[in-house]
Each structure stands twice: as C-alpha cells, then as structure tokens.
Amino acid sequence: MKPRSLALVGAALLTVVPMFAQAQVLRVGLAEDPDILDPTLARTFVGRIVFSALCDKLLDVDEKMAIIPQLATSYQWSADSKSLTLKLRTGVTFHDGEKFDAEAVKFNIERHKTMAGSNRSGELRPVTTVDVIDPSTVRLNLSAPFAPLLAALADRAGMMVSPKAAKAGGANFGTAPVCSGAFKFVERVAQDKIVFEKYANYWNKDAIHFNRIVYTPIPDATVRLANLRSGQLDFIERAASSDIVKIAADPKLKVSKITEIGYQGITINTGKSDKAQANPLGRDAKVREAFELSLDRQGIVQVVMDGEAVAGNQWVAPSSSFYAKNAPMPKRDVARAKALLKEAGVTNPSFTLMTATTSDAQKIAQVVQAMAKEAGFDVKIQSTEFASSLKLADQGDFEAYVLAWSGRADPDGNVYSFLACKQPLNYSGYCKPEIDSLLNEARTKLTTADRIKAYEQVAAQMQKDRPIVYLYHRNWLWAYNSKLTGVREVPDGLLRVEGLKLN
Amino acid sequence: MFVYFVRRLASLVPTLVFVSILIFGLQQLLPGDPAQMLAGEDQRPEVIEHYRQKLHLDKPIVVQYGYWMGGVLQGDLGESTRTQLPVLDLILQKLPVTVELALLSMFIALLIGIPTGVISAVKRGSAWDHGATVFALSGLSMPNFWLGIMMILLFSVELGWLPASGYVSPFENLGANIAAMIMPAIVLGTAISAVLMRHTRSSMLQVLAADYVRTARAKGLNERVVVLKHALRNALTPVITLGALELGALLSGAVLTEQVFTIPGFGKLIIDAVFNRDYAVVQGVVLVTATAYILLNLMADMAYFLFNPRLRH
C-alpha cells in the first residue's frame, strides 16, 4: 500500500474506533453557554435544557403542554383552591444517595422562596407555607388561588435539589449541583463543555439509554451545524431557519420543528416615560392600529424566519387552548391604515424602532420598516447592544422595541408581567386597573374555561390599546443524527432524555 | 544590561495598576446595568437589588475599585457573576489553550512569513516576488471566520479528517490536541505570516542596499552567507518588534477564530464577559493580558541585544 493510502486508512480507523464508545455518549450542541446550574438562581432558557437531564421536577409537561407527573405522582387542589396537596413518588434518591421525601420538598420550596438572589420567588409568591403530611405527601398553602402554580412546579421552581448538598454548597451550590434527575453532574468547563453521567439509581432508569451526556455551547449556528454534519455532535438545538431545507435533504440528519410557547413582537412605549406622549405611536391608539394593519405577518414570517414560524396576534399561539377566539388576527390593510392615520391627523408619523443586534431582530426591523412605509410610517431603526437596550427599555427611553419572550407553560407567564401595572417586564408602561383585575381573575380561577373568559376580555381590550404588537411564534428547529430515536417534541423547546436512543 | 532588565521588570507593577484603573473606569462607562443583565429574563426587582448590593454597584466607583483591588492583593480575582466560577480558575483553564494556539500560530507565521519575505526580497521583481505578494494580499484580505468555516466544511464535514470543534489538552491526548488546533493555527498563522512577509521583505530590501552588504559581497563571500548571516540578522529587528506585538495580540485571544472552532480560550471568555457586563472576569483577563504584553515586549527588547551586539552596553 502506498504511504498516502495507508495514512488515509489509518485516519479512517481512528474515526471508527471512537464511534463504538460514542454510542454510549450523547453529544448535544447548545446555542449558548448556560449560566449558574442552580435551579433557584438560574435565569436562562439554555440552562433549562441542561436541567431537564440533571434535575427532576415535581411535575412536567407533555407534547400538548398538559401537566403530567414526575417526582409528584398526583396532585389535588383543596375545595377553596388555596392549597395543593401532592403525592410524591417513593424510592427516589438524590445523586448523593439522600432520600427524596416531603421534607426535601419543603426544604426546596423554602429555598426557592428565601435564598438571596432567588429568581423563583416571584413564581412562588402566593405559596405561604409548606406542610409535611407524611413522608410521601406534602401540602403547599397559598394566600390566594393561583392557577399558574402547576406550571411553575413543572419548571425550575419545581426542581428538587439535595438538601444536604444545598446546605453544604451554600451560595456556590451551582458549581457542583446535586439533583435527582436521570444524569448526575461530572464536570463543567465554562464555554467548553458540561458533562453528565448516568445516575445508576434513577427511578426511571429503564428509559435511559446513554451513559454520558456532553453539552457543548457553540453560539454560531453555521458552526453548530457543521459539527453535527461532521459527526461530532448528535443533536443541535436552534438550527438556523435558512439551513433547514439543506438539513432535511440530508438522509443522515432529521429535523424537528416545534412551535414555541413564546412569541416575537414589538413593544410600544405607551406610558413608560414622557417619550410615550411625545410620539404619535405611543400617544394615539389609532396610530398603533394603523401600524398593525400595515404589517403582513405572514410576509414577515417568510422573510425573517424562512417560513419557520406561525403568525400570531396574541401572547399565545393560535393553536393554544388559551387563544382568545374573539380577537382574530387582522389581515394586512394598507388602505385602512392610511385612513386611520388621516383620522388621527398624522399622515407621516415617524418613530424609532429599537432592536437587538441579532440577525433575526434586525431582519424584522427592516421588513417592518418597509411594510409600514407603504402606509406612511417613517420607521428609523436603532440597533442596540442587548445590555444597553435592556437599560433603555427599563428607563422608558425608547419608542418601539423588537422584543421576544421565551414563553412559559402557563399563559399567565406570557401576559401578566407584561401588561399588569408596574410589573418588571411591562416596558410599555401599560396600566389599566380593569386589565389588572382581569389578569388577576385569570390567575385565581383554576379551569381553562373560566380563565379563558377573562383572557378573552383582555384580548378584546388589547385590540383597542395595542401596547404590544405580537408578530409570530417561532419554530424550535432541532437537527439531529437520524439514528437518534425517541425525540419528544415538547413546545417548551427542551430536549428530554427519557426514551432517547442512538441506534 | 542586568540592571536594565530588572528596572523594566519593576516597572511592571505601576503599569498594571494604571491599566487596571483604566479598564475599571472604561467598563463603568459602558451603558447597561450588570445587575439587570444578571437578573435574566424575568427581571425580578428583588434579584436586581440583590446583585446591585452583591457587586457593590450602589457604592462610588473608587470604593468598588477598592473592593476589587483588596481581593486581588489576597490572590482573589473575584468570581464570574454569570457562572459563579472563580475568575482565577477561568483564567488558568483558558490561558494554556490561548497560549498554545498563539504559539502554534506564531510558529506557522514565522515558518511561512520569514523565508517567503527573504526570498521575495532577494528575488525582487521575479515571479517569486509577485507570487508572495499575491499570497500576502489574500492572507490579509480573507476574513478569519470565513476561512475557518471553509476549512471546517472541507476537512471536517466533507473529508472527515479533522474534528470540527473542541479542545483536548495535549497532556491528555497529544494527537487529538494537534488535530483540534491545526486548523485554527493555520487560519491565524497565515494571516500573520502575510504581515510578517511584507515586513521582512521591505526590511531586507533596505538592508540589502546597505554599504556593509556591498562590502561583504566585495570580500567574495558566498551569497547565502551574505543574505542569511549579514543581511537577515540586521533586517530582523523591526520584524521582532512586529512579531512580539502580533504574539501579544494572539494572547489576548483571537475571538472570531475561537468562536468558529469552539476553542475555549481567552477571546471567547472576554467577549462574553463584556456583553454580560461580567466586570470581574474582564478585569482579570485584562490584567493577565497586559502582563503578557509587557513581558513579551521586554523579551523582544532583550532579543535585540542578542541580534545586534552594538546595542549591548
């Protein structure tokens, strides 16, 4: 054999040998590096992907966003809806061998509520006390009925960490987390990798078919995809929409498209600062209506997301059971937009649209600028680095802002903090007491039918006031090795490891 | 000369203090609030307040600097507010990676740049010279990230010869380490080699026209001896300066290249820290980079003495 062919064969062998070992390792490419791996302090979406393998929660959600058991096998609201009794799974242990029981649940809920810097205290605000009924029964007592509690317990606020490890780790628990999920923490090199190992005593271990998971943050979507195509990764999240056609055509790869529970929209300053009154868009609801009517949502979806999104006009997608059918999506109507502007007495309103520097946000701003121009709007685009834009939004130093929201399982998580008076994410500065009472009503009623009555009224008012112009709901685009089976397409965009297998 | 060396080393401390004050001040000028960035998506007011107090953001800037400097003097560079990992650990993890990439790239740059520059100068006007100029121009004008992605697509995706990403420590697996580093080193090295080549060429051309080179030729010396022993040694002085500067720049982390090849080095660390307003990380990295720069310049100055005996006094 010639030396060169020998070298090629050698190189080929080198690639084959690791493949046998890799059947046991799942290699996942993330779009960002997660933040602190402590469910109480964590604050990023990408961290939740990693948590889904590391930390089990009291409850979970399924493909239809219905609440299903995980560490809690069943739940029961009291007659007055002011307490929630949970029956816990028996025989569950934390990664350090400690028992999971009602005392552990009490510890965790109190930790989420009281730890300095906790990001979960808002989600659990109505929970006043936790009672241990017996080792496998716990009761959460509330100050008022609170429907979003179930969804909160199906997310980070329901994640249970080992009380022993939490006490030992203190504020730095997140550097070596100990939970009760399918995999346990091995090591983390910032911006390089997060390595987990199978937890031998996991309660659902039969559903786990990997020995290790390695998460690698790769911010650039092209590079992430190249790693998947070269076989170095088995799964990537947030593939670029412009790459989807190419990926779907590759027989070695598969694509999952899941409509998110969040949204992309434009927030308008209607009362956050003086700028609201100084600008016709912020001042006059008719001008905002004209602005919405000048937009072709389907066109925006096509250009910005290559069709990989679902147009929407509310804080939940049209397919959601909480979508208010009395407030349907308007079609583009430039003539009516012009007429409205004439009625409002401003034929060429001008405003500045603040946007992040990500390519999606930039594209949205450019498309919106072009579409709105046809109705007479003069939109100036202001690209702002994220940290700065956050500060400006918080101070009300903007007129309109392209802003997305990652979404929460309960519709309350998509609307309360944005539309209720003086809430942290209410950058619009929108404040109407009747809306506040409707949103509070929707929180305290427990059935979908009752809650949607309140949301329908909110949606009807939104069609008049329009502090936020919702545009669309993105598709989570996952690309993975076609030999990977058991991929569950849950709209929260988190990869679940139970049932995942590489054949 | 020893006194000179010690004096230069001693000036390291006040320089670093000055640099740290400068960077601290500049960071404060950046718009955006670190406490807000740390509060994440939900922007809970109690979380923002917690971080404002934890990071002493409510105190005057001089006090904040005092807290930081106090920690440094005790060997504590603080912790990354984003991940809670100690800054010193982050630096120690990533510094060897960046140093290795910098040295490999510099090696490739010198290997290609200096010989090409010499040949280009000696055979001025010939096909060699023109070829080298074309190479230099393309090296300078090709964006690093584009070249990097092209190489990944060819060598990793199409041919499967090299890994598309990742870093393995050379102590763990030398072969895997080289496989992971070779492409980024080539991307960075070729860009720098273009610069080195141009400088070597112009410096050589100047030196080759000097009187002592004419004398050496007149003495009947072999052309190779004239070029390499007499001309090149003198021509290298500006190239050494340039090389030291380039190496310093490499040590601060080649951000785009690291991003493309997913190399966990300084570049990514500092860029993310700036965007997340992770002040402690930025301060720590800047200190280390400034120290490296100063030491490199000192070594370059020492190297002049080596190459040019006339400077030894």
Compact description:
In chain A, 34% of the residues lie in helices and 22% in strands.
Write the layout of secondary structure elements.
The complex is a heterodimer of chains A (503) and B (313).
Chain A: H1 3-22, E1 25-30, H2 45-54, E2 59-61, E3 67-69, E4 72-77, E5 83-88, H3 102-114, E6 127-134, E7 137-142, H4 149-153, H5 163-169, E8 183-189, E9 193-198, E10 212-217, H6 221-229, E11 235-236, H7 244-249, E12 253-259, E13 263-268, H8 274-278, H9 280-283, H10 285-293, H11 297-305, E14 309-311, H12 334-344, E15 350-355, H13 359-373, E16 378-383, H14 386-395, E17 400-405, H15 412-419, H16 433-444, H17 448-465, E18 468-481, E19 484-485, E20 501-502
Parallel strand pairs in A: 1-10, 1-11, 15-16, 15-17
Antiparallel strand pairs in A: 2-3, 4-5, 5-7, 6-7, 8-9, 9-10, 11-18, 12-18, 13-17, 13-18, 14-18, 19-20
Helix pairs in contact in A: 10-12, 11-13, 15-16, 16-17
Chain B: H1 2-10, H2 12-29, H3 34-38, H4 45-54, H5 61-73, H6 87-122, H7 127-141, H8 144-158, H9 174-208, H10 211-218, H11 223-251, H12 255-261, H13 266-275, H14 279-307
Order of helices and strands of chain B: HHHHHHHHHHHHHH
Query: At the fourth CATH level, what is the homologous superfamily of the largest domain in chain A?
Result: Periplasmic binding protein-like II
Q: Outline the biggest β-sheet of chain B.
A: none
- What is the alpha-carbon Rg of chain B in Å? 24 Å
Query: pLDDT average of chain B, as an integer?
Result: 87
Biggest contact: A-B, 50 and 49 residues
CATH-scheme architecture of the largest domain in chain A:
3-Layer(aba) Sandwich
* Rg from alpha-carbon coordinates of chain A: 24 Å
| Helix-strand makeup class of chain A | alpha+beta
Q: What is the CATH superfamily classification of one domain in chain B? A: MetI-like
Oligomer: heterodimer
The main β sheet of chain A shows up as: 12 strands, mixed
Distance between the termini of chain A: 34 Å
Shape verdict of chain B: globular
Count of beta strands of chain A: 20
Helices of chain B, by number, come to: 14
CATH architecture descriptor text of one domain in chain B: Orthogonal Bundle
Question: Poorly predicted ranges of chain A (pLDDT <50, ≥5 residues)?
Answer: 16-22
* CATH-assigned fold name of the largest domain in chain A: D-Maltodextrin-Binding Protein, domain 2
Helix amount of chain A: 25-40%
The count of helical stretches of chain A stands at 17
